[in-house]
Amino acid sequence: MIDTHAHVHFDAFAADRAAVLTRAFALGLDALIEVNLDASGWPAVRRLAHADPRIFATLGIHPHAAGAGAVDALHRLARELPDRRVVALGETGLDGAKGYCPLEEQRQLFGAHIRLARETGLPLVIHCREAFAETLALLDREGGGEVRGVFHCFSGGAPEVAAVCARGFAIGLGGSVTRAPETWAAILAAAPRAALLLETDAPFQRPRPAGRGRNEPAFVFVTAQVLAPLLDLSVDALEVLTDRNATRLFRLPHAPAAEDERVGGGA
To answer: Is the pTM of this model over 0.70?
Structure first.
């Protein structure tokens, strides 16, 4: 199993980070993508990725950190590229919820990420909340059909799935699926199976069957248990499917078995 989105470098894991990772790998986690959010967190993200061959990194600045100096900070971080442990750019995107940075500042930062993705060939890890139309428009304008990535913690409906996947992007599925699984049938029906990824967003979005509190990479297996029957798949088949998708998108060096007959039907 691959957790395609986590923040284990956060202070929420300061007291037991090693134990959290050991627990996840002992359960069968094959790889973890550690997602950067700002310039100050990058050294910790980088250390994690370079210390364990099962951990990979993204490089970027979250839209909540947009504003004065953010684009320059991104360009400073990008001087470390190429880095064999960096498999994507982000977390980046647009957040239309009230109380965050002005959208114009977010657009400038997101546009810089998109242009960097075109230059490097790295996929984007996109945060999109209440801003699907603007996010897609900016991807079309700045990306020119040449960038790919994942809409992490996907929060849209079937029309948004169709629009995202038509542009070659994947959708990240995590704890939100477990909170109201009955609402996800139509959403998942609109998504090609080649576009599905599993994630935790740890320490956020703890899946409901795991109770309350901090999320962690080990709980990706809990989400898989809820998601698999919605796709009429076994958990093992879902693992093969989503691991293959993650390996392809992020160009991970170890490719899980790609046995189509174990995955079953679906686009």
So the answer is: yes
Residue 139 DSSP one-character state: I
Which amino acid type is present at position 155?
Answer: S
| pLDDT per residue as tens digits for the range 195-246 | 999 999 999 999 998 788 999 999 999 999 999 999 999 999 999 999 999 9
**Cα(98)–Cα(185) distance, integer angstroms:** 29
Pick the CATH number of 2-263 from 3.30.565.10, 3.40.50.1370, 3.40.50.150, 3.20.20.140: 3.20.20.140
- The full DSSP string for 142-190 is IITT---EEETT----HHHHHHHHHTT-EEEE-HHHHHSGGGGHHHHHT
CA angle 164, 139, 4 (to 5 degrees): 55
Among positive and negative, which fits the CA dihedral 208, 5, 184, 231?
Answer: negative
Query: In whole angstroms, what is the distance from residue 197 CA to residue 140 CA?
Result: 22
Residue 263: both structure tokens together: 């995955």
